[in-house]
Design goal:
- The complex is a heterodimer of chains A (548) and B (459).
- Chain A contains 21 helices and ten strands.
- In chain A, the strands form four sheets. Chain A has a three-stranded antiparallel sheet. In chain A, strands 4-5-8 form a three-stranded antiparallel sheet.
- By secondary structure, chain A is mainly α.
- Chain A has four domains: 60 residues; 88 residues, no CATH class; 114 residues, no CATH class; 222 residues, MetI-like fold (Orthogonal Bundle), CATH 1.10.3720.
- Chain B is mainly alpha-helical and 459 residues long.
- Chain B folds into two domains: 153 residues, no CATH class; 235 residues, MetI-like fold (Orthogonal Bundle), CATH 1.10.3720.10.
- Chain B is 76% helix and 1% strand.
- In chain B, strands 1-2 form a two-stranded antiparallel sheet.
- The longest helix of chain B is centred in the middle third of the chain and has 41 residues.
- Chain B is flat.
- Classes of the chains: A mainly alpha (548), B mainly alpha (459).
Chain lengths: 548, 459
Amino acid sequence: MSEAQAINRRGALDWASKSAQRRVRRRYAADWRLQAYGIVAIAFAIGLLGILLASVVVNGYPAFVQTKLDLELYIDPSKVKPEDPAKGNYRAIVKSSLASLFPGVTDDKQKADLGKILTSDAAYIVRDYVVDHPEVIGKRITLPIAVSDSFDQLYKGVIPKEVDALSITQERWFERLLNRGVVVEADGRTDLKLDVYIDPAKIEAGPPPTGDFAALARNGLQAYLPTVHDTGLFTMLADDAPEAIQQRVAADPSLIGKTVQVLLPVSEPYQVLAKGETPTVPNPRFAPGQIKAFESLVERGMVRTPFNWELFFNADSRFPERAGLAGAIAGSFYALLVCFLLSFPIGIAAAVYLEEFAPKNRLTDLIEVNINNLAAVPSVVFGLLGLAVFLGFFGLPRSAPLVGGMVLSLMTLPTIIIATRAALKAVPPSIREAALGVGASKHQVMLHHVLPLAMPGILTGTIIGMAQALGETAPLLLIGMNAFIPSVENVGLLEPATALPTQIFSWADSPERGFVSRTSAAILVLLGFLVIMNIIAIALRHKFERKW
Amino acid sequence: MVGYLLLALIALSLVSYFFGRRRAIATVGGRQHDLHSRPSYHGAFVAAWVGIPAILLVLIWLFLQGAVIDRLLLWSLPPGTTDGWDSGQINLLLSQIKSVAAGHIFGEPSQTVMMAAERYKEWQWIARLAMVAAAFSVAVVGFWIAGARIAPAFRARHGTERVMSGLMIVCSLIAIFTTLGIVLSLLFEALRFFDRVSPLEFFFGLRWEPQIPIREGQVTAGGAFGAIPVFTGTLLIALIAMAVATPVGLYSAVYLTEYAHPKIRAVIKPVLELLAGIPTVVYGFFAVLVVAPSLRTFGETIGVPIAPNSALAAGAVMGIMIIPFISSLSDDAISAVPRAMRDGSYAMGATKGETITKVLLPAALPGIMGGVLLAVSRAIGETMIVVMAAGIIASLTANPLEPVTTVTVQIVTLLIGDVEFDNPKTLAAFALGLVLFVATLGLNVLALHIVRKYREQYE
């Protein structure tokens, strides 16, 4: 039935007609599709949020424990003078303690490899302990000492003991040869049946025949995979592959200048691959013997993974196993303190003036436009401002939390002002009128009545502004608040410092594997602070929110 | 030292508050009704007179002291020492004198420098003492003036309120000063940059190689400041981000405003806003750790090489960050469409979907456009994601699988580490910053204009 027929003579639509029903179905299908798109979009966004959080948690949680070795040490009085314990030869003490664990090892190189199981800071850990407890000199003590990053990761199972010997591409090359029927198996051994051109330019007839047989074998293999331009291909041939050709030529010197079919043995990993298994080699990160020694320590029950308090109480370090967040947390704290002390009073004063006192004129309009625009200025521009004005013009010290806090306060000011104005607006005029009615001055109305009532809203806005400031990175980078802080002793408003987000940035840039999980752990700590701040803000809002 | 001085002044001001109170009560013999203003206003009046001028003096002193002492030092050098030097050499000499004065002696400083360092130490000591003395004398004078005015009929409340109003106006002006500071510092440094590099080259040049030699004989690329590849890279990444964020944000806004049950909306909306609350450095790490490698693996399996710092990875992650912006701004725009239009559409027999696509979205389009423009300005100004996940080398390409660089990446890489303000490399960052500031400001003004104009139509 056509569309035209669906409309009968009286001009009414025949809803029962098939085409009308189809149209209705189609319209509702479009409606349903729109809804489905919406659900997909939301699922996409929330799914990505989930992946983000999950990846951070999965990468970060191993960093909350630290692999440590309970090392028994003899604090030899001949190496540490009781009167000056800070200057002892602790390296030797750690070395001899380790040596006593492995009496069989005499080779210096192997001893050095064993020493690398422990963190490079091991001697300093012992020194710090002895300086704090001088009575242990001359005694035997057992100290938990962090193992170096590679062994930490090994023990946590982040990096494997053995790695795949062949890359995916290498396996693919072998697969292509398999598909061409070049790979033959005989007597439990895998060979490549290749056509090899015995190039007279490369071979002396002999006897015995000499020359670059390896090149012949390589050319033969290359001919089967002409598109591969990678010398990694030739590791497929076993070391005795050239000999196979040599033997053929020795047996029949007339082959020189001809193309012959030769069985060339493949190298060890490919032998394994041909059997359908995955070839592995010991992880090249570790020196030979290191893994065995570490496993013997594990068997002796000396390796533990206690909770990693150092993550919170150590300052930064070049060695991931010793790096902590104390410096960053202190720096962030000082910067936020300055930011709060500046932006909270200034923000409230500005908001109160604009909302309650300001006459409507050009100047106040200009201020309002400025505040709204400042809220949208990219954060990196505030960093440029801090660099040019605070560091360049006023000559304040680089990397200082004071400057960081000042820059952050300029960024949070608009947030606080906007939140305060909203909170002031929410206080009903009846309060103001009643106070004015009993003779209070405008300032008294403000200070005694309106501001206290608006305070919960103001505080909520301030905390949210502070949370934003805590996560802000770019302006801090520009004023150099990403200094390397190896000790928490000189932290101050004017000392070089780092902050949590900039610490995350520096760690994310570090190549060591251990810093990946430290970075994720630092992100978890940062997110933890943000969650706490937001929960406080929400709780404040719920507790004191009033409906007028 | 300065901190203690400020603390001491604040303490002094507190003390004088209590003094003022007691003095006011004493003037009327304890009968507080006879006072025009309550005693605490008298106290606050005295405290303001003691604290504010003295603290202001200290701050001004601190800002000027360094420059004045530097000038004095240069004058005191034997005549002819600095003849024909440029400002860089003079600054170097000054910093050498200061580091010698601070006890860090490297190599063998000349006799002049040693003597200058002695003088510098001495003068700094004098300046400090003078500052403390001046601050305290100003405080005492303020105390004397304000204390003398305490009397039963003195209108202390008016005085205090005037001071408060003044302080509040100064606080509100900080917004203007900040904007002024941004504009002036960017403009000033950018003009110095355009002194050395022609604006024509900067705005139309196709090669961006800012690594010019710092020391003589250092081998680097020639140093070219054509910013076109940087701008196109920024636009490419912003475009990718918007391509991710706009459909996702818009569809989720449509679903949340029109289809979702209010209870579901109350749960989903804050969860989406969480995406906006995550610090950008976390997104950057996510891009490097998860998104870029998975894109690369995906590319390998389908046989397309994708660079590890491709524009696609950075742009996509930035898009995720921007989703909540678009979604909440579109949400506002759709909810602001008057009820009557919705009802009219339903009355005509339109389905929900038809109402949305044919009535609500066209009506909300200006608001949505405004939101998209705001999001674009966010994307252009976003820094950490691109610093961590995008490239550093500027290449003129529209291929999202290759690395490109952005304005913000260049600003950060040019300014990280020690900064010399005489270097075109440093100044180039300010020129880029100026462009960034103008571009984002323009987008914001435009977006706000569109949103406001559209709102007026319905009110």
